[in-house]
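[step 3/7] fold_predict: job queued, chain A
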Amino acid sequence: MTGTVLGAPAERREGRQKVSGAARYAAEYTLPGRAYAWPVPAAVARGRVTAVDTSAALALPGVLAVLTPGDAPRLAEPEDATLAVLQNPDVPHRGWCVALAVADTPEAARAAARAVGVRYRTTPHDTELTLDHPDGYEPEEANGGYPGRVRQGDPEGAFAGANVRVEALYRVPPLHNHPMEPHASTAHWDGDRLTVWTSTQGGTVVRSVLAQLFELPEDSVTVVSEHVGGGFGSKGTPRPDVVLAVMAARRTGRPVTLALPRRHLPTAVGHRAPTIQRLRLGASPDGRLTALLHEVTTHTSRVKEFVEQAAVPSRIMYATPHLLSSHRVVPLDVPSPSWMRAPGEAPGMYALESAMDELADALGMDPVELRLRNEPDREPGSGKPFSSRHLAECLREGARRFGWADRDPRPGNRREGPLLIGTGVAAATYPTMAVPATATAHALPDGTFAVRINATDIGTGARTVLAQIAADVLDVPLDRVRTDIGHSDLPPAWVAGGSMGSASWGWAVHEACAELASRLAAHTGPLPVEGIEVRADTSGKADADSPYARHAFGAHFAETAVDTVTGEVRVRRLLGIFAAGRILNARTARSQFTGAMTMGLGMALTEHSTVDGAFGDFTEADLAAYHVPAHADVPDVEADWLDEDDPHLNPMGSKGIGEIGIVGTAAAIGNAVHHATGIRFRELPLTPDRILTALLSEG
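[step 4/7] structure written:
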């Protein structure tokens, strides 16, 4: 039976619960006496609260309390300053929580929040990101611990002396995480014991943070995150909702649920920071890169530093003797940016792959061939050998399936009435990572098995995949394995993020089941009543340094139709071919790939946000103004993968797949629009106003 379970297209174990409504999310735990909380967001861009009038709010029926900076429970100083809510009267940006209303019903809590009167003393604010901002600086590190700058050779000199040069600025606006389930938490105190049900990508971390903030032993805190309705990075660390819910429950002595209104999400839970990216590529006439310079300017808040690592992909992708990859960050009076699907890689590869397309155009070379010609034999930024790198195979296979050989390379040459038709290509990469985790595997006398680990399923199918790993190692049918996840009393595990959930949790499950299988093989007679349990901890293994550069790769192909009358862009076809190690579940993997590719389509065509300079607020604060793709926007999306065997990863041979699908999609679409129109657009999204204005100016 070994080898028949892992990789099979098994259905999600919790699917029926979700479609029937039986799955309970964080705001759906109906505890006796439950109350509801509603935040009051700051109405100024920067300043200080001078007074809070709660009298009108407290006079409303059903209102239990209003917490303010002057009387809210005190917290220990958090490592993440965005969690220091209601601890002082300072307002670092619009939308910062300045009060919290608690009432018997959500409606009463909302009415009370609106009735709270807040007075401010304002100070001048600055929300505009510019390349020459005087407060900009070069950070020592970008997110993920990457050096802020990597420099090799003489990139400026090599670029100046290159036979063929491309220099361009690319702009990606602020982008927002909008999971179906907003950030929500239900908190309950039982004496000094705290239980929270929260929408998070990692309950182990939430437990640790709450214990620190409220000065509790960790074993006095229980965090439940059994079902989570999406996160895309915004639930990767604790957010203010869980802290505020716990504070309100402590104040009122009742269980309290706080579900952030969707309009609050852009200012309360993070966003993808905007980037201005300067790309300079120098090449010889045969298309080989002689210089690659990728300089990123982005913003952060004044609350804490967060540096979108958009220049990092340039250290991975292409062979060049002269390389500069650097970041510059500007602190502004804006909400704190944070993790969003494929942070760094999504905006960084948009710029790099767009510049590569421009270079191919300048050289008169096929864009696929240009990428193949610049394949490195080692990772350029580190010099490490790749554990596996099958980008070339992805490009070739994608080109074959897409019919790339039949493409007329001339831009603006294919018409269907008022429509201009074009095709584009872009490469994709995402790092392969793992962190330590602990799991138990338990053999029961009835012939079934239980695997326990505090993993989180945010819609990826983690429950199912972990059961498949266990069944494969134990050599038993999948229906004999139960998976327990989403509870902090289970063995600890890291967050579902960085496309390393299955790799990290699966490693621990694999080890526990391998040891259990060995114990069972040596056991004679019936199992004891309590069964046999084995515990595995991958500390020292999953986090060990590797001599290899470990990445997943892919190639995206897109066909677009540009309407010359309306400026509308329609994507007709998307194809993604990926090399992502061993695929653990064909059904959930394809879902992850195509979902991320759809998100990349939104990044290319519809999704964007702007900061109003006068008010310091995001103007696209809800799904009426922040446009994510609807069903009618999504074309024929096809995702497939190569059978890749990489022995340098983890016992399963798997790479993360949740994020690589978004990487490169926007560039492929943008390159297709250039091929359709002959006009190069360097700012996302490609909305009809931008397209039509450019078409009319060209015409």
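[step 5/7] annotate
The chain has a mean pLDDT of 97.
The CA atoms of residues 193 and 256 lie 15 Å apart.
exit 0
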